[in-house]
Amino acid sequence: MAGQLKVDVDHVADNGPGLAFVIYPEAVRSLPLPTFWSIIFFFMLITLGLDSQFASVEAILTGIQDIVPKCREKKVISIFIICVVYFLLGLPYTTKSGIYWVTLVDYYAAAWGVLLIGLLEVTAISYCYGVRRFCMDIETMIGPWSKIYWMICWIAITPASIVFILLYSWIEYEPVIYNDYKYPQWSEDLGWLISFCAIVAVPIVMLYKIFTHKKGQSFLQTTKLLLLPSRDWGPALVQHRQLVKHVPGFTVNPEDRSQHTEFTYQNMSTSEYSNIAGTTDQETVA
To answer: Within a 10 A sphere around the Cβ of 32, how many other Cβ atoms?
Structure first.
């Protein structure tokens, strides 16, 4: 295309939605049998979009089913409702101003929110749950495995990389633009709101859990207690739970209420758990 237009490549190349819907169709038109290549190209885009939708719909469906287990009995209806909501939310992108909305949402929604969630996840696994404990859980499922590389990644490389990318992106931050169009201030504020909507649930749920679970314990005790796995943590089937040997006090059968602990205390002595829960050793054992 640059040769036909007699310009440099950087004057033709584009990124974002314009690359797929403007530049590539123009490039395909200059190939032999352009109709064939156009059909193949847009068929690829359709399958790519469907593949992405499978993952996003399943993620939302799984969350809804975990919160409202009754929805599992009506999975098809739940999927239909999710798809209808997705369809309605996508309609503004098909208007004349759609490309501006796509650029705004793509610039903010798919950037810092995803990185922050990833940082929180790797921190929770490595430093709250314990990377050694996590590796032993995997070993229970798949047998002995080479875990040194993964432990180094989860403890140091991945968190440091995400923090570096976040800091660099914030330092080099520039307001979103589309071609020569500069977005108004309200749209930039909306973009930041969209970006942080993805992670605002984390502190909200944390504070809700802390203040609704307090049972005569201090704030620090409640926080430490909530960082422990619940009694049904672990494999779903009892026959598989019996394979877990590396966790002292592990609840083999969550349905057996003879163990009255609300949480599974891992790699802790009874006295350590009692200090966190604010109970006596006898109460913990009971």
So the answer is: 6
Provide, rounded to the nearest whole percent, the portion of the chain with pLDDT above 70. Answer: 84
Higher pLDDT, 23 or 68: 68
C-alpha–C-alpha distance, residues 139 and 263, integer Å: 22
Query: What's the whole-model pTM score?
Result: 0.68
